[in-house]
## 1
Amino acid sequence: MKKDDCFYLGKIVKKYSFKGELLAKLDTDQPNLYENLDAIFVELRNNLVPFFIEKSQLHKSNLLRIKFEDVNSEEDADALMKSELYLPLEFLPKLEGNKFYFHEVIGFNITDKKHGDIGIIKAINDSTAQALFEIDKNGVEILIPMNDEFIIEVDRNSKTILVETPEGLIDLYL
């Protein structure tokens, strides 16, 4: 399984018991969706390795207490500390309306109500305080904040996102 075919679920943050149990901090708004998994991919030395889960349960909101098969001691658990957890993309719940996953809209066309066709989304920059659409318009990079107030419609069939940007934002780039 390649990382491109998966999504980041969380990270193992601490040991829970002397019997190899671990606590993982989940990066999700709906941790209960991932409470009864059979298996998960653990990133070890830049490879995704499948681990089967004996049992798991939510522990204090967004922590998942996990007991993996064949991880039976503190030493076994130590080897997995700080490892990232991944699941195949098909495990993501389907989103509707104007909600979307970042990976889902790469390649979508952005259209502004006033300016018309803006360009193609080439990436999402989520390293800033507010996530940004990185758009390519004939070699010019345009950045539009991913603000719910700006996004009018996400059309998955035509792969377009209709936005209404504040006055002057698009003009900064053109």
## 2
Amino acid sequence: MKKITLLLLLVINSLFLSGCLPAVSTLSTAVSVNNDRRTAGEVLDDRTIAFKLFAWPSTDAELNEAHLNFMVYGKTVLITGETPSNALRKYAASQTKAQDAKIKQVFNEITVGPNSGLLNRAKDAAITAQVEALFHDQEVFHPTHVRVMTENQTVYLMGAVTKREADKAVKAAAKAKWVKKVVKLFNYLKTRPAAEVERDRQRELVAQKKSELKKQQAELDAKKSALKQQLRALGDNAEGTPY
């Protein structure tokens, strides 16, 4: 029973994390852009495109035997998965762009062959989780700047990043267990956005101010403690002075 339960958990996890089902967030129009380099409108466009793509294969009879995953960033679509024939592979790629007029570019990484098994998809999901965790354990770029998807132990990375950030993302992703290959599909920036640099500068100033206040408070507490000791010593001497 325990083995069956564990297998079911792996299957459910793989379905959500590998892209077989749309994330709940794609259904919401509330868009958070606190750290995203896309505008709120661009994020919403990408989520709308992704939702249409996830829903599409189940309504297209031609794709009944295919297994497709999608990742969207900046109106650019990555397709991975498997199709039983090269003709169907080409069909899937050509029809992807037709799902939304805002799609600018399609990267076709579909392989021809049998659909991947549930355990393979669970392993891919575990790799993606590892990579995302590694992205949180570095300070070169914000984790929201790079999107991750894994297919057949190949990690695909998308986002708007500088070359330095891209190199760091690739090195971090390559450290994850079971990764065979890392594919970069980045939109390269010459420099970090000025607004982002200024925001980080303001955060550093706030952090520095807090640190100074904390230091001043510590010095004040030390002076108070020293003064109390002096008063206590004076009190002891007064009590022991003969008249």
## 3
Amino acid sequence: MKKTSLITIITTFTLGFSSLLTVSSVNAESIQNIQSNIVSAQQQLTSLQAQRSEVEVQIQKNEQAIADNSAKIESANAQIAEYQAEIDQLNKVISEIEERITARNETLKARAVSYQASGGQLSYFDVVFGSKSFGDFIDRVGVVATILDADRDMIEAHEADRKEVQEKYKEVEQKLNDLNSMKVELEGMQAQIAEQKANNEALRAQLVNQENDSKAEISSLQEQKAELQRAAEAAITAVSVSPNSQTGTSKGTSVSNSNSIPVSNTAVSSGSISTVINAGNKYIGNSVYVFGGGRTASDIANGRFDCSGFVSWAFSQAGVRVGASTDTLKNTGTPVSVNEMRPGDMVFFNTYKQDGHVGIYIGGGKFIGSQSSTGVAIANMSSGYWAITFNGRVMRVIH
């Protein structure tokens, strides 16, 4: 009986210990998998935090750009006020001239009445045949000549004033046209600034949400790991389970850089064209749109461009000098049809005004330029916003 009991006890212990080892093995494997997931989530969180740091730097650049653009708007508003004051003054001058013309018209009307005698207009014929004597004839001729000379002087002054009024109106009209163009440009600038702010804030909020999700995932995994460890310790007091000894291959997910934009692989035979279309690659995801930017060494060093400033700079990298405004660029080079456009050609878009945006075609239906919402970036002009605003103007500078 004693031998049988001992065998039973040994068998029971062996089975129990085997079960405990099985449980321990299962828990250890689960803990290892969870630890691997924790490492992966931490890697993703680190990547997101790095991206957010980059976005924060970009936001700082954008905020500085917005401040600079706001200063330009204030300066433009001050200039508009000056123009308006000058226009008001011109209108006063025009009113004074018109009053003189009106008064002179009344005088001429009075003279016309004085020319009429007995219901008929006095003429040299009347002077000759109506005079009673030679002396009377001489007197009449003298009076008529004096009146005609006075009327002629008045008419000449009248015409001079009328010409002055016309010139003043032209001047006022030009001022008003310039003023309206400036207002349109200001409205476009304000829209671009608002777009910059909205996109940056949306991107920052998205990254913060992703970070929070990663933190929550890590916390949940750590809690699961702790529960398994507690269960293992409660079930197997004799076996020490050290999660730190468990190593696993990281399953870190590669997080793509949202600012990375693929460049077209279109073959370009000309070295100069290749230089132009690739010059801005280093600024992709590391630049900011600034109205009037790209025209100083400081702006270029800090990636601060507007659309025409960027295009001018890109061509300068290939030794080609072009203007730095869309109005100049749209008349630079040789016009080509859309069907014939090739990498290196300038393409134009009707944004806040006619030919309000310009970029450099790189092939594959894409162009590179300084966009208001992204800074220097490659955009698709075959669909979406840029397809709608592309106006068909294509200019070729390098042949």
